Amino acid sequence: MTTNGGLEPVFCTIVPPHILDRLARNEDPALSGPARRSLERDAMERTRRRLTTVVGAPAVAPPAGKQAEEPHRTIYDAHHGTDLPGRKVRGEGQEPGADATVNRAYSGLGATFELYLKAYARDSIDGAGLPLDATVHYDENYNNAFWNGEQMVFGDGDGEIFLDFTIPVDVIGHELTHGVTQHTANLEYFGQSGALNESVSDVFGSLIKQYTLGQTAAEADWLIGAGLLAPSVTGTALRSMKAPGTAYDDDVLGKDPQPATMEHYVRTSSDNGGVHINSGIPNHAFYLTATALGGHAWEKAGQIWYDVLTGGELKDDALFADFATLTVKAARERYGAGDELQAVQKAWEQTGVRTL
Questions:
Q1: Could you read off the pLDDT of 320-336 as tens digits, one per residue?
Q2: Which of 308, 349, 342 has the alpha carbon at shortest distance from 327?
Q3: Of 72, 178, 183, 276, which is the active-site residue?
Q4: Can 276 be counted among the known catalytic residues?
Q5: Are 128 and 72 in contact (CB under 8 A)?
Q6: pLDDT of 240-280, one tens digit each?
Q7: Which one of 8, 45, 160, 175 is the catalytic residue?
Q8: Is 0.90 surpassed by the pTM of this model?
Q9: Are 178 and 199 in contact (CB under 8 A)?
Q10: Half-sphere exposure of 85 (CA within 13 A, CB side)
């Protein structure tokens, strides 16, 4: 179910284009080569996604015999090619094999399914038991992971800047959450609505990691992609929800450009209007809300965000102020005029986003 009657033809990657663009201009071919090929592959997959949306993707129904509220995972191996989905290497219920990448992908799909089911009573990303498919070992030295509207795809990284993209479970949760957004609010992937699309994926990607680790909001690192950067990179992750703009400061990658407040909102024509950059603002608002409330962030703060995403009132071209206003409304409707409402209101106030 979507709010605008159709699915937005979104192709979503975890590594922002501005990072790959910078790498592609590096004088060292060991760094620039994989980045250029990754950008080219992303462009091809983005075009394929648009064509699929125009022609119409085949409907996917849960397989016969699948029990309600149980995952149905299938992992494929592209063997460093680009034909999707590749060769099936592990199905639902099969024991782990020798390939750690396959096993991590399988576990990450399961962790995502479990968080949405246990915390929000959502049966898979579409709410109706959609099978979860993923392809690993995609292309040569591919520096990204993406959701193409139908399945997950993971590169192995180049080993110089990025490691295997199945390592951080929040990367898996982030990309699959683009599927949840696709099937609910269907936020347009441009400007502030695109930044909200990215932020929602960061929020629930982080919650999936916290749920898997059993962490409270105070215990969580609030990093997106921790463990993904190679040891030579000066940085801890792709993004920080706790302190946007501090995830990396590297001679090769440059400095993390994310703002934490509207005062430093970035106006740019690149990256669909800065969707991976300005997402730091709503990300920070969620972090402030969750840590103010304490306990497990998926229980109250996450519930409020989920209510907004799936409530039917969030327009596909929503601005930050629209989203913030709906979180205030959702907090009041679910929890009354207590700590939850005050935490949400204060968080948006601190980030400089006005609520109507």
A1: 999 999 999 999 999 99
A2: 308
A3: 276
A4: yes
A5: no
A6: 999 999 999 999 999 999 999 999 999 999 899 999 999 99
A7: 175
A8: yes
A9: no
A10: 18
